Amino acid sequence: MKSEKIAMFRKILDKQKAQTQADIEFMEKENKEASQDFDSAGDSNFEDQIGDSASITFERERDFSLQQNKKDILRQINVAIEKIDDGTYGSCSQCHEPINEKRLKALPYAEYCISCKKKQEVH
C-alpha cells in the first residue's frame, strides 16, 4: 500500500482513537453520576426502590456492554496503529494477505480480510 494512503488511514485512525477515548470517558462519567444519583435517592418508598433498582440495573448492564464495545474498538484501533508503525498495516492478522482497500475505508481498524472474518463468524 502506498505511503500516502497509509498516512490517510493513520489520520483517520488517530481521529477515531481520540473520539473513542472521549466517548469512553463520557460514558464512565455518566455511569458514575447515575450511580451517585441512585445512591442519594434512598428516601423513596420500597415499591419505588424495587422498580427503580430493576431499571437502573438494566441500564447499567446496557451501558457497561456499550462501554466494553467502545473499549474493544479502541483496542482494535490501537492494533491498527501499531501495524502502521511496524509496516504491516493492511495485512490480515490471520492469513497475512492484503485486506481489500474498500474494507479498510469502511473499517480502518479491520484486523482480518473478509474471508478470514467470515470463517471466524461461522465457528
Q: What's the assembly state of these chains? A: single chain
Could you say which overall geometry the principal axes of the C-alpha atoms support?
A: elongated
Tally of DSSP helical segments:
4
Percent of sequence in beta strands: under 5%
Estimated radius of gyration = 20 Å
Major sheet description: none
Taken in chain order, the helices and strands follow as: HHHH
The percentage helix is: over 70%
Distance between the termini: 31 Å
Describe this structure in words.
- This protein has 123 residues and is mainly alpha-helical.
- It is 76% helix and 0% strand.
- The chain is built from four helices and no strands.
- It is elongated, with a radius of gyration of 20 Å.
- The protein starts with a helix and ends with a helix.
Task: Provide a quick synopsis of the model.
The chain is mostly helical and about 120 residues long. The protein is built from 4 helices and no strands. The model has no long low-confidence stretch (mean pLDDT about 85).
